[in-house]
Amino acid sequence: MPELTVIMPVYNGELFLEESIESILSQTFSDYSLIIINDNSTDDTQKIIDRFTRLDKRVQCLKNNANLGPAKSRNLAIEIANTEFIAFMDADDKAVSTRFEKQLNYLKTNPEVGVCGTWFTFFGKTDKVVKHSINHDEIKVGFLRSCTIGNPTVMLRKSSLGNLRFDERMKIAEDYSLWSQLIANTKFHNIPESLLFYRWHSNNMSQTKIENLEASEFSIKAKQLEHLGIQSDNPDLEHYVSAVSLKRNQPTVSIIKTIKAANKLKESNKKLQYYNQAIFEKHIDKTIVRTIRNAKNNDRDFYKYVKNESGFFSKITKLDAAIFFLKSYFN
């Protein structure tokens, strides 16, 4: 029985699939099984998979009779994986040859960690290294803003995953949803080294997809705030989410509500200790200062509130405070 299962869903991936598979087969760690889920592709994807299954007995294939999407495809493979360690990979990315070796070594050395990601490099249009936070407490707070672990870089313990799975109802951000829930149950870590090349695609997202992404991300952020007693029916939910995730161009009346929500979140976490308080407060302070800087409008009353009542004026740099004053009194 292999020590690791690698899960790779693919749909019409003939352009880059071969390169991706070869990056897995050339890993310095070799004791694994690669499960490729063909999500009812209509191009030559299956021919490519068949060639590799003949060449290497570690490569297996699941065929979906309909296009089920990446979430369902990954979940199907998770169910049949009979190893404690599971790694994810996308069919158009490339893994650095030492990726599995380094992640496995880290997980084995740190049994309290259930999920291990890595930094990664965008390639195609640009060569930018994405350096997510490394330690657990910072990753956990970072999830309030965005997904702070690269899905195709993840290696995890199946025992840590428990009954959680990718949300098959979501057509976008299903990875963000899963990891933001799982981090409540186990420790996370990102290896501070780029061990994956993440392919940059030039095609722009449609307006519908952008709107769906924004709605999905809002619900994911709101769900995390339940740990601090903020329920989905809270009339000020929008302002609580804005307190932990920057929303630009807000009118001053909305920013005041967001500031009040931010102060309540600080107090709530101080009692519940769900997040590291110092990291949590630093995150909120940065969000509120940027919110004030990006206000839709400024006036004297708003300036006086921020300076005398908000509790955030001391967090603003002297230069930004001067600009804020000028905008409020002379704009």
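The record above closes out task 2.4. Task 2.5 opens with a second protein, given below.
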Amino acid sequence: MTQPTHARPTLSRDSARRYVDRFASARVVVLGDVMLDRYFWGDVERISPEAPVPIVHVTRRSRRLGGAANVAANLGALGVRSEVVSVRGSDREGREIARMLSRRGIGSDGLIEAPGRTTTEKVRIIARSQQVVRADFETDDAVDGSARRAIYDRARSLAASADALVISDYGKGVVLEPEIAEVIAAWRKNEKPVLVDPHVPHFAWYRGVTVITPNTREAHMAAGIDYRKGKNPSAIAFDVLERMELSALLVTRGEDGMSLYYGDCQEVHIPTVAKHVFDVTGAGDTVISVLAAGLATRADLVDAVVMANTAAGEVIKEVGTSTLTADELVAAFE
């Protein structure tokens, strides 16, 4: 086994453009938990006489796709054809998600309706670019019955025709054993990349995928990878890589950038490019969508990670979940 290598890879704007120009030829499937993100924007001028909490005078409302649906939205903004495979309720929020996907040209044949199920909705109240409170409406019960069969039949069937699979696991009942192992096996049999944005309790389920993208907290909780001073995260990361039969492990580390472990003890650390951070909501969705677009078009792994890191540095400049176009991604390279 070779010694770990440390590098700070870069990518020119021309090289990024060549990669991005290939995105339109790709088709990526996103399997996971869809959500509706609803925002109320306003200002705070006084404290409530009823309780020591601010009164937000709402001046604007907006809604955005969240979770697996946001990954698909990110892919669509990059010019990648995508399809969501998930479950929604027969409620207003579920119908809104279906309409929003349709307007963006995102495939939703795999978005299965389950009557009686609550579609996940996250409501955020924002005052002067600061989140005041968030309210979640959701169920994390495992999807079952005919909806479960339909979701996983669709996920397996697309392995032959699509170019990559993203598993966007928020632990809301879509990603399940033993079916997820069967889906991973089907995609790997077709030699297609499988990328996972993980849910910590499910970490062992992702054996054999191409790459997992935990953040620092998730990596520590799921695998014991610890970046605190005096620790040696590399040894544990490479052990995870081997034990779980991964091609790569990408740990997103916030202000410390990203750490990629891959191949035969190859290790690269990529510093963050973010100069201003307003909101990290949805940044992980952007990272995995750009990485999936790159791997779906057979980009070099390290170059794909550099593009994902650059994209993340752009979206966290905005408040709330946001997407980045292909041109905006290229423009971000100096």
